[in-house]
Amino acid sequence: xxxxxxxxxxxxxxxxxxxxxxxxxxxxxxxxxxxxxxxxxxxxxxxxxxxxxxxxxxxxxxxxxxxxxxxxxxxxxxxxxxxxxxxxxxxxxxxxxxxxxxxxxxxxxxxxxxxxxxxxxxxxxxxxxxxxxxxxxxxxxxxxxxxxxxxxxxxxxxxxxxxxxxxxxxxxxxxxxxxxxxxxxxxxxxxxxxxxxxxxxxxxxxxxxxxxxxxxxxxxxxxxxxxxxxxxxxxxxxxxxxxxxxxxxxxxxxxxxxxxxxxxxxxxxxxxxxxxxxxxxxxxxxxxxxxxxxxxxxxxxxxxxxxxxxxxxxxxxxxxxxxxxxxxxxxxxxxxxxxxxxxxxxxxxxxxxxxxxxxxxxxxxxxxxxxxxxxxxxxxxxxxxxxxxxxxxxxxxxxxxxxxxxxxxxxxxxxxxxxxxxxxxxxxxxxxxxxxxxxxxxxxxxxxxxxxxxxxxxxxxxxxxxxxxxxxxxxxxxxxxxxxxxxxxxxxxxxxxxxxxxxxxxxxxxxxxxxxxxxxxxxxxxxxxxxxxxxxxxxxxxxxxxxxxxxxxxxxxxxxxxxxxxxxxxxxxxxxxxxxxxxxxxxxxxxxxxxxxxxxxxxxxxxxxxxxxxxxxxxxxxxxxxxxxxxxxxxxxxxxxxxxxxxxxxxxxxxxxxxxxxxxxxxxxxxxxxxxxxxxxxxxxxxxxxxxxxxxxxxxxxxxxxxxxxxx
Length: 712
Known about the structure:
Elements: H1 2-9, H2 11-17, H3 23-28, E1 42-46, E2 49-52, H4 53-71, H5 78-105, H6 111-120, H7 140-151, H8 160-195, H9 201-212, E3 213-223, H10 229-232, H11 236-246, E4 251-252, E5 256-265, H12 270-289, H13 294-300, H14 319-322, E6 333-339, E7 344-367, H15 372-387, H16 392-398, E8 406-409, H17 420-431, E9 437-442, E10 445-469, H18 474-490, H19 494-500, E11 508-515, H20 528-534, E12 546-548, E13 554-564, E14 567-568, H21 571-595, H22 600-604, E15 610-618, E16 623-625, E17 630-632, H23 634-639, E18 651-652, E19 656-667, H24 674-702, E20 705-706
Helix pairs in contact: 1-7, 4-5, 4-8, 5-8, 6-8, 9-24, 11-21
């Protein structure tokens, strides 16, 4: 039970180092009760199975808590939330598809197999859990101790913070266990697929010979850009030919739309800046008179910098504050001043300076007894024993506690606003000397701590920082809205937007193939309503003005130009994607006719020709051509079977047409090993090519429908 005592004894400290992340769990059951789209019940469909919005949200909430726990934070940005939703959806799609395939062939993962992975610690994800030994390796015994402890917890004996931590840790482990099981099933299924890929002696021999042969060649290249587009005379027939060749690459798994949009950012006016400066001037005067309760003052001042009861190193203060510390005395105020880097007006007070440490090594134990008096008596007894030279770990063990030596770096806590017990704990550690022992009472819990070592004593600063971003006023916002609204009223069709946006100082942007999982339009947060509008609109529709952005600081107008249903693009819709390839094909044909029958010397005399010497050209490797700055995979296959001084036929490259002449050839050293070569071929095939191809086919057959945008 040593591990459990370690966890228990570290309860208050874990609030500092790891933090708690229970809010989403508490609120999760509420499940977005009020929604403008409350009639929608499903976020999508995978292989004929409807995925309910509630089930999806539950998975998102669980994964969010895992991310919080793993990253030791309570804060999740909107961008991270969007990434979590996409990751959860991707996991649900993969797991559903693989589970359906596995069920069809009777493939399963047993609990015993999962336990075996855990006992052996063979899954890399296990090393990311808190159940590691001193070497940082997963220790299954520590996990088993925790699970046994969790099942036997007397919740009345623990504080809310401690119980919350154990709940978070337990749910974190359930996610890890679930991930291991789904990963095992995926691995089993792909192992079956890989086992079906075999090589043969003929393929092995050809592979070896192609791999060791090499040649030096003279390469002549003529860029396609040397031919004017108009001279290529691209026709509809050319486009249809290229479309037929590339049709499979033009399949879309989801509906998409070509959109035009105006993203108009509202900027603060000169009057807004002047008004804020006047306000910060007044706050500077008030800050000079404040001597306590700085936290309340900063809240009233609407500062984006919160007050911390723990002094901070200069490196963990805002940069604009840190560089001005030498310009103010203790008790003095510096400001107001403007910081261009974050567009803020600022003022700050240097309350005091203290000595602290960059890193502290310490150990701690919790004192537990039947009541307050017994706890106080036991605390005195332990403190006396320690002051007389008693061994901390031995004494902790005597009272069924585990004292673990650990380092705490200032960078792990100083950036946060620390208050209450957390601040008391950290301030005490920073005030102690190496070898010193102290006891603390934190919310009724007694902790005895000993500082074992310290690194880099530094000056730390207690500061109260008023940092106010420059923001636009309601009047400025209204003026911007009215300006855009007038423009849209006068230009209510797409063609009118395209023709007149620039003259009206609006930038009209184009996004072809926009899909709903983009989550944002123009990368601007809080644009979900606009996204829902896009996928409910018809071709040619222009939206109303949406107020979007983190502070409603962007005005967004969207127009739907084209709607592309799921499936193969039509030739007309695909023109933008295939026209460049079709043009290259046409230009190559022109150059091919021009190069036909010429000697290498005659080729060298053509205008716009570049000559490169390429060494060690190989059948299996791409060749880098310096003059065209491109890797060309077609060159090796075209050259390797030539005789010395023989010229290739014209070769179609990415950016150029080529002809090449072999000037020498030889081979890399090596003996043919049939078994090794067959294994190499199979390894390449089953590494990524086969699994990716198989899963793409399964995804296609599953007919995945993603309607998350309608709800989230």
